[in-house]
Amino acid sequence: MSAANLQLAEMAIGNLSAKDRQSLLRKYQQAPEAPPERLLRRAEVARRLSSSLRLVDLLAARGALTRIRLPGRRRGNGFLESQVAGLMAGGKVGNQ
User: What is the Cα–Cα distance from 88 to 49, expressed in whole angstroms?
Assistant: First the structure.
């Protein structure tokens, strides 16, 4: 934060009542929210599973992976990283 911005913030805080200052402190001292779960593109899922794109499509069609529509895309889909990790831990996917 620049010195000018810091000075403005100090002036704004100085004009707040004690109750309002406590309210702001509680708001910003709360634990941060967990980041949203990571989405993987189809090619990344195939690479992690050491398989083809077609197998990723088959897994999605059979319900083993859930397609999540990417915002702002017509055909863009992603897959939850936790689901891919679960498949990898199960050992039922890949060139085996």
Answer: 7
Q: State which amino acid sits at residue 39.
A: L
Which sign, positive or negative, has the C-alpha torsion 94, 60, 45, 32? negative
- Three-state secondary structure along 5-61? HHHHHHHHHHCCCHHHHHHHHHHHHCCCCCCCCCEECHHHHHHHHCCCHHHHHHHHH
What lies within 8 Å, CB to CB, of 14 at 6+ separation is none
pTM (2 d.p.): 0.58
Whether 96 has a pLDDT exceeding 50, the answer reads no
Per-domain residue ranges of the chain = 1-30, 39-90
- Which residues, other chains included, contact 59 with Cβ-Cβ below 8 Å and sequence gap of 6+? 65, 87, 93
